[in-house]
Amino acid sequence: MKIVNLAKVALVGFCITSLQSHAQDVHFSHVEFSPLTLNPAMAGAESPMQAIVNYRNQWNSVAVPYSTIAASFDARFNDKKRMKKGIMAGGLNFFNDRAGDVRVSTTNINLNLAYHLILDETSTLGIGLSTAYGQRSIDPSAGRWGSQYDGMAYNSGLASGETFNNPSFGYVDVGAGMVYCFKQGQGYTTQNNNKAFTWGMAFYHLNRPKFSYIEQEQERLFMRFSTFINANFGIKNTRGSVLPGIYYNRQKKSNEFFYGMYYKYILTEGSKVTGFNKPLSMYIGLFHRWNDAMVAKFMLEFDQYSAGFAYDVNVSSLTEVSRARGGFEVFLRFNMNNGPKGWR
Hints:
The chain is mainly beta. 8% of the residues lie in helices and 50% in strands. The protein has a 14-stranded antiparallel barrel with strand order 1-2-3-4-5-6-7-8-9-10-11-12-13-14. The protein is globular and about 75 Å long.
């Protein structure tokens, strides 16, 4: 009985969260492979061209599963001959998030523009801007409301008593960020002395767009602050590397602190000259989202292609209801990593 009652409370909480999610943005456990939701300046920061697809599914043990699908593409505009002073880049990001019984849906299409000043052969400093158009909708008829309880049981024939002035609406969203990138050394197993790290900070929802199904003039989306640092350190004269990362987001009173580390092992080293042998690497990672979940990650990287899987094990106060099952996530990535000397 206790579990049943707790489940009901959790379901109500999820419904309220869906309706009042002005303080929540979409997030991925593979946060480093959703670069344009992390920072607008990540467009062109680490690769001449890349395309990524993400999918996340969560809370299927508690309610109707929450699912998020995203896709992004970013590329540099400059050719190699014009990269002496700086790199111009752009990106396109799309995501759709669907949550709960009442099918709360958020769709966002985001355009990014970035410029990366080349400081020397090892580092750049970039700034980026993003402009997005979002669309948000809800289906009140799919919900179950307190006023539809007739004293004995749920009765769908009773009126919900709920009023949604804006069950579907659009909005314009603006963000900005900056990123510093550093890379030095070689990644071949004969040396494996490479060192790299990326640091960034960004602000999303700078224009505080209207974001309510009920009172749009009063309810606005809160600004989100994001900062992160991740790194790649080769273990000299071995096939291994460690890749730590720390990510922090704050949106009004909501905080997300995510940290952990990958271990990379080179299974097959690529040919240095001919290119006949393609590199193949395996990544195993363990991360922690503070007061929420432990996240196990696995990734394979073959030449320009990567595929990864993550699984969240819930360790928060919802464990009794969720049975420790948070969600799973997959991504696919194409990375044309053939920049000038000194760049990834």
